[in-house]
Design brief:
There is one protein chain. The protein is mostly helical and 73 residues long. It is built from three helices and no strands. The chain has helices spanning 2-20, 29-48, 58-72. α1 crosses α2. The two termini are 12 Å apart. The relative contact order is 0.16.
Length: 73
């Protein structure tokens, strides 16, 4: 059950990443909720990444950390 929740959260992160490339959809209520739930784990990672990077790799870092946690379980 926990693995399923982790995989659903990874899916949420992927959807949030795709939505960031579609600015016309970012004003919808469901898109704002997805961003809110994704920023729960992305915001602390973004504090440690340099702001001058051309791409936001925080979703990749969070997904990697979740997969490491999942493999240790």
């Amino acid at each position: 059950m926990i693995r399923t929740l982790l995989n659903l959260y990874i899916l949420l992160l992927v959807v949030d990443t795709v939505l960031s490339y579609l600015p016309s959809l970012n004003k919808n209520i469901w898109a704002l909720r997805i961003k809110k739930y994704a920023n729960f784990s992305l915001a602390p990672i973004r504090k440690y990444l340099p702001p001058s990077m051309p791409f936001d790799i925080s979703p990749l870092v969070v997904i990697l950390l979740i997969k490491i946690l999942e493999s240790l379980w």
